[in-house]
Amino acid sequence: MSSTRAADHLVVLLHGLGRTRRSLARMDRALVHAGFSTMRIDYPSTRRPIERHAEAVAEQLSRAPVPAKLSFVTHSLGGLVLRQLCTYEAPWREAMARVVMLAPPNQGASLAATLDKGGLIRAILGPSFGQIASGRAETLPAPDVPFAIFAGNAPGVPGDGLLRIEETRLEGAAEHHVVPTIHTFIMNHPAVIAGTIAFLRGSPD
C-alpha cells in the first residue's frame, strides 16, 4: 500500500488480471503529485473469482481510516472488482465520491470468450478470466457515484487489442474517452493520467 493515512481525498488503485499494484505506479505518483492520498491494493487476480477479490479489497478498506472522500482508479478486471464492491454496505462506501475505469470489460470481452474455448486459458488465468468470458459483468451494478471510462484504440488491432471500444461502455457513465493506446499500458498514457486527475477533482478535462 502506498498510504494508509486518513486524507481529504483518498484514491484506491486496483490493478488488472495478471498484474500487480506495481503496474499502477506511474498513475499513483501522478495522483500524489496532484495532492491526493493513494492506496494501491494487490489481490491474487489469477487465483480467485471476482467476489473473493472484492472481499479482500473490502477487508483492507475496513482496516484503514475512512477518508472524507474515497475514489477509485481501476484497470481492466479491477473495474469489475470495483463494481462488486458497490454491493457492499460499509462506512467506506458512504465516503465514495468518484470512479475512473481504465479499459474495463464492462460488457464482457469477446476475445476472452473466443480464447476460453476448451478452458485452457481459463486454467492459466484463473476463475476471474472465466467470469469475464462468460459475461459475469452483465450481473454487476454500475457505480452509484459519478464515473468516467477510458478506452484504448490502438492502430492495427480491434480496440485496445483485448477489448473493443463498445465493450468498455457502461450506462450511466459521466464521461467516456477513447485514447490511442493498448490495453496493457493505458494507465500510463499522458492523456489518461491528466483526464483521471481532472475527473477526480470534479473539473473538466
Please give a quick description of this structure.
The chain is α/β, with parallel strands linked by helices. The protein has helices at residues 25-33, 50-63, 77-85, 91-94, 110-115, 120-125, 127-133, 190-201, and strands spanning 9-14, 37-41, 69-75, 96-102, 147-152, 175-179.
Distance between the termini: 28 Å
Strand order of the largest sheet: 2-1-3-4-5-6
**CATH topology assignment:** Rossmann fold
Percentage of residues assigned to helices: 25-40%
Biggest beta sheet summary: 6 strands, parallel
Radius of gyration over alpha carbons? 16 Å
**CATH architecture assignment name:** 3-Layer(aba) Sandwich
How many DSSP H or I helices?
8
Can you walk through the features of this model?
The chain is α/β, with parallel strands linked by helices and 205 residues long. It has eight helices and six strands; from the N terminus they run βαβαβααβαααββα. It has a six-stranded parallel beta sheet with strand order 2-1-3-4-5-6, sandwiched between helices. Helix 2 packs across helix 3. The two termini are 28 Å apart. The model is unreliable at 1-6 (pLDDT under 50).
Please specify the SSE layout and strand pairing:
Layout: E1 9-14, H1 25-33, E2 37-41, H2 50-63, E3 69-75, H3 77-85, H4 91-94, E4 96-102, H5 110-115, H6 120-125, H7 127-133, E5 147-152, E6 175-179, H8 190-201
Parallel strand pairs: 1-2, 1-3, 3-4, 4-5, 5-6
Helix pairs in contact: 2-3
